[in-house]
Write a structure and sequence with these properties.
The protein is α/β, with parallel strands linked by helices. The protein has four domains: 121 residues, Rossmann fold (3-Layer(aba) Sandwich); 157 residues, GAF domain (Beta-Lactamase, 2-Layer Sandwich); 156 residues, 2-Layer Sandwich (Alpha-Beta Plaits), CATH 3.30.70; 194 residues, TIM Barrel (Alpha-Beta Barrel), CATH 3.20.20.450. 43% of the residues lie in helices and 21% in strands. The strands form five sheets. Strands 19-20-22-23-24-25-26-27 form an eight-stranded mixed β-barrel, surrounded by five helices. A hairpin with a 3-residue loop joins strand 20 and strand 21. The longest helix has 44 residues. The structure holds ligand C2E and magnesium ion (2 copies). One magnesium ion binds next to strand 24.
């Protein structure tokens, strides 16, 4: 309750009313009182005086207490009413209480009045608080449902008009807004038009336009201003809003309503606005605005990729952090420039370069700032090389530019170093960003786009190792065939000499810190170099077919470890094993898997498999069948590194899978900024809509864990909990129970 306490007295005798007032003042209560005695005056006072409490005489000459009580209840079910009576039998008192009176006080026992008033006010206050929080929760639940509905739409719907229609429909039907509409800018015309609209005013939308002006005084609508400034506008009461508003944005019959209009941004540029309005005042609290903003970020994200053709194309061709082409698209573009058929006279140069200070920035200021730095590099490249057609982000801190024969500068490396001569500005801080560069020339260093890019990277590697700012490719920079053969030879012997070891990385459930699974990750205990991670030797195993024998060893070893843990009666834990493409395409995969795992029908093993999206893409009926057989034997199938290919999206529902593992590149990008949640939140919603579990990979910070949990992903794996460790360590952790896993989490 705010302001002064107001008490309305229904009492025909002025002296009696004075007596009541005196009694209340005596107890120290501060208030203003108004006395009325007729029905009409009472009705008016309820409206205009707006009391916090009513003291009603039960018997009046022209009016009675019971009717008064009903009138109050109709207006406000929570307003306290205390009956004040000359004499009242028990039955009558009970009747009043049943009819909704808060209490009753006898005129000859007025000492009870003040405590009764205080208690009634306190209880009414508590009821109001409860009612408000229930309403708030109901509203937020509705908005959350709306958010989830729109996320699902974002991943399911491929056509822009249909998606926007659906977003408005959901806002209206699920979010219960009085209206929702999306207006998109008509490029070059300085206006925006509604393209989707539901609710009030939906009929009259055709022909409506919103002007997008150049200056604040020329704004004539909320939408126009949002599109001009790129900032959201939200007001809780139209009566208090002083900015420009158009007739279409005004809910004709309601003078006081709330409205929120959000910019839809593509490449940080407003392309449209999403607006919702409600006739329920005070609806737009901070939490609700936050949720709406998240929803709009997801919608913007969808528009961004629909803009760039489709989700499949966008995520498989563009790097979402910098919006530049990724390696695949860049290679396609380079291939187009050099042929076919290759014009061997048209020299073309691919330059790969990286920002020297990136790892230092990551270590000193955190990845978030590192990411911002990469975005600045991308912006600088877009400015320097006019648009982004010829530049790419190869991943990590690596970028590339192709210089085609029609505009080949004498010294391409200078163009790149010139572009970074000025420091970059990240969050107001100037960061000098010297670059190193490696260059490969078509046709002398290679005639295939992929080769040129690889050779430019090898030259870059040499430049970084050698201390020069740039290097041109030379053959000896790629590891020689002889070296590769030697590695292959040593790897062949490694299996027989028992040099491979299986490490396991825990997967922790958020709720109880229990280790619910482990991922088996192979290591090579090389007598020459020590423990070697798979990145260094898997490609050789795969290209030589050795992976089949090694894969068999991995399975046998994992199954053996599993059995041992069972034998010791340790808490149950699922063990997931990575399966490579070569293994997957072998005939009879399921039968072999089960045989290596030492079982016929899957009983007695807790093994799962992880395969990458790319493998599923191959769309082979035999792979699908093998996976179905494995699942029938109780093996769960996880898609590894999910989100990096995205291409199997539309097929997800048809595939025999159980789990999506969210790739660490997405987890790494999670920051408190809600816009960074869009992809992960979309993946989780998508998984849920297909009834799949999610596991987040590469979780390194408690903040990431918290965001993932808020988005609905319960199981996580990453250095935050533990790196991959030997089987004995897992055994010890399992023995120690959930507490040990939780401890691992804080390491
Ligand atoms: P993956 O299946 O995606 O495995 C996760 C990788 O992320 C592991 O790298 C793991 O050590 C690393 N990792 C875990 N937590 C974090 C973290 O918090 N931050 C970061 N940055 N990285 C984290 P690892 O062990 O080097 O394995 C690399 C890849 O090699 C695996 O990726 C998997 O695709 C493949 N691989 C590993 N073992 C096998 C195997 O036995 N068979 C096959 N076919 N492939 C395997
Ligand atoms: Mg894996
Ligand atoms: Mg992975």
């Amino acid at each position: 309750m705010s302001g002064e306490l107001k008490i309305l007295m229904l009492e025909d005798v002025p002296e009696e009313a004075e007596l009541l007032e005196r009694e209340l003042h005596k107890s120290g209560l501060e208030f203003v009182a108004r006395r009325v005695q007729t029905r009409r005056a009472f009705d008016e006072a309820l409206e205009q005086f707006a009391p916090d409490l009513v003291l009603a005489d039960s018997r009046l000459p022209a009016f009675d207490g019971r009717t008064a009580l009903q009138m109050v209840r109709q207006k406000d079910p929570l307003m306290p009413v205390i009956m004040v009576t000359g004499a009242l039998g028990d039955e009558a008192a009970v009747e009043f209480l049943i009819a909704g009176a808060s209490d009753y006080v006898l005129k000859d026992r007025l000492a009870r009045l003040a405590p009764a008033v205080r208690r009634a006010l306190r209880e009414a206050g508590m009821s109001r608080d409860r009612q408000e929080s229930e309403q708030r929760i109901r509203r937020l639940t509705r908005v959350l449902q709306m958010l989830s509905g729109i996320n699902t739409a974002v991943v399911r719907i491929r056509e822009q008009p249909e998606l926007l229609e659906e977003a408005c429909r959901i806002a209206y039907q699920v979010g219960h807004y009085a209206y929702a509409f999306v207006a998109l800018i008509d490029p070059g015309r300085g206006i925006a038009r509604p393209v989707a609209w539901t609710g009030k005013g939906a009929e009259g939308r055709s022909g409506v336009t919103f002007r997008v002006a150049n200056s604040p005084d020329a704004d004539c609508s909320v939408t126009g201003r949002v599109l001009r400034t790129g900032d959201l506008i939200a007001f809780d009461s139209a009566r208090d809003y002083a900015g420009p508003i158009s007739d279409e944005e005004r809910i004709a019959t309601v003078t006081n309503y709330c409205l929120a209009s959000f910019p839809l941004l593509v490449d940080s540029t407003p392309v449209g606005a999403f607006t919702v309005a409600s006739t329920q005042q005070g609806m737009l609290g901070d939490e609700e605005l936050d949720l709406l903003q998240e929803m709009v970020a997801n919608l913007s994200f969808a528009l961004q990729y629909l803009h760039k053709d489709s989700a499949l194309r966008y995520l498989s061709y563009f790097d979402p952090l910098t919006d530049l082409a990724n390696r695949t698209l860049f290679c396609e573009r380079v291939a187009r420039l050099i042929g076919p058929p290759p014009n061997l006279d048209a020299e073309t140069i691919v330059a790969a370069f990286n920002v020297q200070c990136l790892s230092l920035i990551n270590d000193s200021f955190g990845r978030h700032i590192g990411d911002l730095l990469l975005q600045c590099v991308a912006d600088r490249l877009r400015q320097r090389f006019e648009g982004s057609e010829r530049v790419a982000h190869l991943g990590g801190g690596g970028f590339a530019v192709v210089f085609a024969h029609d505009a080949l500068p004498a010294a391409p490396q200078d163009q790149i170093s010139d572009a970074f001569a000025r420091p970059l500005t990240v969050k107001g801080r100037e960061i000098p960003a010297p670059v190193k560069c490696g260059l490969a020339r078509f046709p002398i260093d290679g005639t295939a786009a992929e080769t040129l890019v690889q050779h430019a990277e090898a030259a870059l590697h040499a430049a970084c190792a050698g201390g020069s700012t740039y290097r041109y490719y030379r053959r000896e920079m790629s590891s020689s065939t002889a070296e590769r053969l030697a590695l292959e030879h040593r790897l062949r012997g490694a299996l027989d000499r028992g040099e491979f070891v299986l490490y396991y990385q825990p997967q922790i459930h958020r709720r109880d810190h229990r280790m619910v699974g482990v991922e088996a990750l192979i290591r090579w205990q090389d007598p020459e170099r020590g423990l070697v991670t798979p990145a260094e030797f898997l490609p050789v195993l795969e290209s030589t077919g050795l992976i089949l024998r090694v894969g068999e060893w991995v399975l046998r070893q994992a199954a053996e470890d599993c059995r041992r843990w069972r034998h010791f009666e340790l808490p149950p834990v699922r063990v997931s094993v990575n399966i490579s493409t070569a293994e997957l395409s072998q005939p009879g995969l399921a039968a072999r898997f089960l045989r290596f795992a030492g079982t016929r029908n899957g009983s007695g093993i807790d093994l799962d498999v992880e395969i990458t999206e790319g493998e599923l893409l191959q769309d082979s009926a035999s792979v699908t069948e093998a996976l179905q057989q494995l699942r029938a034997a109780g093996v769960r199938v996880a898609i590894d590194d999910f989100g990096t290919g995205f291409s199997s999206l539309s097929r997800l529902s048809e595939l025999p899978i159980d789990i999506l593992k969210i790739d660490c590149s997405f987890v790494r990008r999670l920051t408190p900024d809600r816009a960074s949640h869009a992809i992960v939140s979309t993946i989780i919603t998508l998984a849920r809509s297909y009834d799949l579990d999610t596991v987040a990979e590469g979780v390194e910070t408690p903040a990431q864990l918290e965001i993932l949990a808020a988005l609905g992903c319960e199981v996580s794996q990453g250095y935050l909990h533990s790196p991959a460790v030997p089987a004995q360590t897992i055994e010890a952790l399992l023995r120690a129970g959930p507490y040990a896993a939780a401890q691992g989490e804080s390491q």
